[in-house]
TrEMBL record:
Residues 77-104 form a coiled coil. GO terms for molecular function: DNA binding; DNA-binding transcription factor activity. SUPFAM superfamilies: Antibiotic binding domain of TipA-like multidrug resistance regulators, Putative DNA-binding domain. The keyword Transcription applies. Signal peptide: none annotated. This is Transcriptional regulator. SMART domains: HTH_MERR. It comes from the Bacteria. Keywords: Activator, Coiled coil, DNA-binding, Transcription, Transcription regulation.
Length: 262
């Protein structure tokens, strides 16, 4: 059975120009011509085209494919072995690039310039959810506070992060102890812990007035990804995020009242 160049192009998912190019290159010449001189391809021609397209998909040049097709039994195996080696090396290179790109994304979205190994060493169970970091960055990208926070985070050294996380862990232990002991969210102890958290943010990231601290605490109560930044899931208790939110709001009200009394 014979097929026109247009039919073959449709079958193979290539352009007519590509088939003409293969013909001119001597790679795939149609077996016949119509009475009007148009190219006609046989089933054998289609089988050869399949081979050509297979090798093209693997990245072989047309010259290499022509060499292989001169004697497929003698030439194909060695060419394929070489190409497997090249593809494996390229896969490794692309994987390394992907890792670098992922780290760049994390730096842009979290401000943390640490390797994955250093992150695990410093942060332990505390993780950065990139979906949350992305949403936060998009939402607050024009905020002076967000810009300052990202810049200061990016400037922190590994030792800075160790100190920061040590302070956070000590604060978290006090928070959990107070909550487990039934400390009311508007009590002095809870509000003092809320104030300590606010000052921690101001010390390491950006100034954190009461209104900003309220917004941060609101996120803790409504978004588990945000709360996981301060209390890892393995240490969380039912109602703890809401308790911290109420303590932050109570402390903010206390600070506002204190300012008004001055």
């Amino acid at each position: 059975m014979s097929y026109s160049v247009g039919q073959v192009a449709a079958f193979a998912g290539v352009t007519v120009r590509t088939l003409h190019h293969y013909d001119r290159a001597g790679l795939l010449s149609p077996s016949g011509r119509s009475g009007a001189g148009y190219r006609l391809y046989s089933d054998t021609d289609l089988a050869r085209l399949q081979q050509i397209l297979f090798y093209r998909e693997l990245g072989f040049s047309l010259d290499e494919i022509a060499d292989i097709l001169k004697d497929p039994q003698a030439n194909a195996l060695e060419h394929l072995r070489v190409r497997v080696g090249q593809l494996t090396a390229e896969i490794d290179r692309l994987r390394r690039l992907a890792e670098v790109a992922e780290q760049a994304i994390e730096v842009q979205q979290t401000g943390v310039r640490l390797t994955p190994e250093e992150r695990f060493d410093v942060f332990g169970e505390i993780g950065f959810d990139l979906s949350y970091a992305t949403e936060r960055q998009i939402k607050w990208q024009d905020s002076a506070g967000q810009k300052e926070s990202m810049a200061r985070a990016a400037a922190h050294t590994k030792e800075d992060w160790r100190q920061l996380m040590g302070e956070a862990a000590a604060w978290r232990a006090e928070l959990l102890a107070a909550y487990d002991e039934g400390e009311p969210s508007d009590g002095e102890r809870a509000m003092d812990l809320a104030e300590e958290h606010r000052l921690h943010i101001a010390s390491w990231f950006t100034s954190c007035p009461p209104d900003m601290h309220r917004r941060i605490a609101d996120d803790f109560a409504t978004d588990p990804r945000a709360f996981a930044l301060v209390v890892p899931p393995s240490q969380q208790r039912p109602g703890l995020a809401a308790h911290l939110r109420k303590a932050v709001h109570a402390n903010a009200a206390r600070r506002v009242a204190s300012e008004e009394d001055r």
